[in-house]
Design a protein that fits this description.
With 513 residues, this protein is α+β, with helices and mostly antiparallel strands. The chain is 34% helix and 21% strand. It contains 19 helices and 23 strands. The strands form five sheets. It has an eleven-stranded mixed β-sheet, with helices on both faces. A six-stranded antiparallel β-sheet has the order 8-7-6-11-10-9, covered by helices on one side. A two-stranded antiparallel sheet has the order 1-2. Helix 8 packs antiparallel against helix 9 and helix 15 packs parallel to helix 16 (384-395). It is globular.
């Protein structure tokens, strides 16, 4: 769609083909060849609106509402097209064509309005050029504006206006002290892992079976089928540990690694899982706006086992502990390592150990009562008592950082944990309300009972992780709204943040989940 001062042209590239569309444009517009060959003439309206308003990623209709006179925009406000699939059908209907023309005409009016409001168009042109050259797909590169509470901003625009206020993007650096963990194993096993340490996640030893390791999500046998783990090997490793807790987990002094036991009915240990613990510096910079710009909001990190939740929690703890009184309620000494002295990766944070899982909620309350933390970090909330303790701590003014297994949709279905995001209750609708709800959902059946969120979420901010996608996070900045959408059978909006593993730069796109 091409808008000029008096005429708007709609070209169907599917029907005409790219060559014919370009031929028309070259013949119809003076200087269009110069325009298409000179990328400096590209203007990104979203960047221009951000420079004027300070709002990153302003939505199309929000932009029109703020830039156009009410009498102009109000005629269009109730005509937004909901089903974008209509654009895939051919021929395009006259109604759709008219809809598109109206949108572009209004965008042209917004452009003229912005020209009057901004003094220096060259800033927008240079930022637009940089975005057009470097962006891939629909995701735009973002940065964090240190001078404005680490607010998200367009990287290209900040580079042109206030480069000194950009939070430096740093590559993530993993620190893995594997030598002590591997020293528990006989040399015949440890030597096979020397070339795989960077991607090693678990070592599995079961009596009577071939030892194996998980490397980059793939099973790696440590020997042939005739080589089996013997009882002596298991006992030798156990003797080097400080003892297992009631959760069948043990650790190594001032190390982040975790050793978990499998027992038979006689409580004899018949299997071990050696989980490699890592500290990844720079890993939490992708959510700097949540950490430093939302001091009154708590963060819940969701993901499958092995998705990197604990690794992120460690780095978040270190960053927040630079300026805050941070206390860790360490379920299995997994965040800060085993031993009385916490691992250096948590910085100035203090750590309270949990003797057994059934005491975790009591330790959380004790932490608030005795040590006045500004931030409490909890790894693996998994029981209703801990949910209630988290709500109590939140109500006493403590900010919470916690991790939970699963996804947001699964969390809503979990009767033990759904209280973390407000809980769910059933409400009975009146006849008129039930008919209205059914009409809004285009449903023939009328439901008299509906699930609704019971109260405000304990955690307002959510980070969702997926196994194997360590540089792709989904951030929900309004947990209450997301939960309401799910309960209403709708998709919820999340920020998909993608990190370049080499440079640490972050791009962001809005997605429906």
């Amino acid at each position: 769609v091409v808008a000029a001062e008096e005429t708007t042209y709609v070209l169907d590239c599917v029907e005409l083909g790219t060559e014919r569309c370009c031929e028309f444009l070259f013949l119809s517009f003076n200087g269009f060849a110069h325009l298409t060959n000179n990328i400096e003439k590209i203007l990104d309206m979203q960047l221009a609106a951000e420079l004027w308003s300070g709002i990153h990623g302003m939505k199309f209709h929000t932009m029109l509402r703020q830039l156009l006179p009410p009498e102009v925009y109000d005629t269009r406000a109730n005509k937004q097209l909901g089903d974008t699939q209509l654009f895939s059908t051919r021929p395009l209907s006259p109604g759709i064509l008219q809809h598109v023309v109206e949108d572009v005409r209004l965008l042209y009016g917004a452009f003229m309005s912005l020209k009057d409001k901004l003094d220096d168009w060259s800033l927008v042109e240079r930022a637009s050029k940089a975005r057009a050259l470097h962006n891939q797909g629909t995701a735009g590169r973002i940065c964090f504006d240190v001078a404005n509470a680490y607010r998200i901003a367009s990287y290209e625009l900040m580079q042109e206006t206030r480069p000194g206020d950009i939070l430096n993007a740093t590559p993530v650096v993993a620190s893995t002290e594997t030598s002590i963990l591997l020293s528990l194993l006989p040399y015949s096993l440890s030597k096979q892992l020397q070339d795989h340490l960077e991607c090693l996640s678990d070592i599995v030893l079961d009596i009577g079976r071939t030892p194996l390791a998980w490397v980059s999500g793939q099973r790696m046998l440590l020997g042939d089928e005739n080589e089996a783990v013997e009882v002596d090997l298991i006992n030798n490793i156990v003797d080097q540990l400080g003892g297992f807790g009631t959760d069948n987990r043990a650790g190594l002094e001032r190390q982040l690694h975790r050793i978990s036991a499998i027992r038979n009915r006689r409580s004899d240990i018949i299997g071990l899982t050696l989980r490699v613990g890592r500290h990844v510096s720079g890993n939490a910079n992708m959510i700097a706006d949540l950490l430093f710009g939302c001091d009154d909001k708590s963060i819940l990190i969701l993901g499958e086992p092995g998705s990197g939740k604990t690794t992120i929690v460690r780095e978040v703890t270190r960053l927040l502990a630079r300026d805050k009184n941070v206390c860790i309620v360490d379920t299995s000494n997994e965040i800060a390592g085993d031993g009385d002295v916490p691992h250096p990766c948590v910085g100035f944070a203090r750590r309270m150990m949990v003797p057994s899982l059934d005491q975790q909620s009591a330790i959380m309350i004790e932490c608030v009562q005795n040590h006045t933390p500004g931030v409490m970090v909890i790894d693996e909330i998994g029981r209703n008592t801990e949910v209630e303790a988290a709500r109590t701590c939140k109500n006493r003014g403590v900010r919470l950082i916690a991790s939970v297994h699963g996804s947001l949709r699964n969390l809503i279905k979990n009767p033990e944990l759904k209280g973390l995001i407000g809980g769910v209750e059933s409400v009975t609708l009146g006849d008129a309300q039930a008919r209205m709800e059914a009409k809004g959902e285009n449903s023939r059946s009328i439901r008299k009972v509906k699930a609704e969120r019971a109260g405000p979420p304990t955690f307002e901010l959510i980070v969702e992780l997926e196994r194997g996608q360590h540089h792709v996070w989904h951030v929900v900045t309004d947990a209450a709204n997301a939960v309401d959408c799910i309960l209403n059978g709708q998709k919820y909006v999340a920020q998909q943040r993608v990190r370049d593993s080499t440079t640490g730069s972050v791009s962001m796109n809005l997605v429906n989940r």
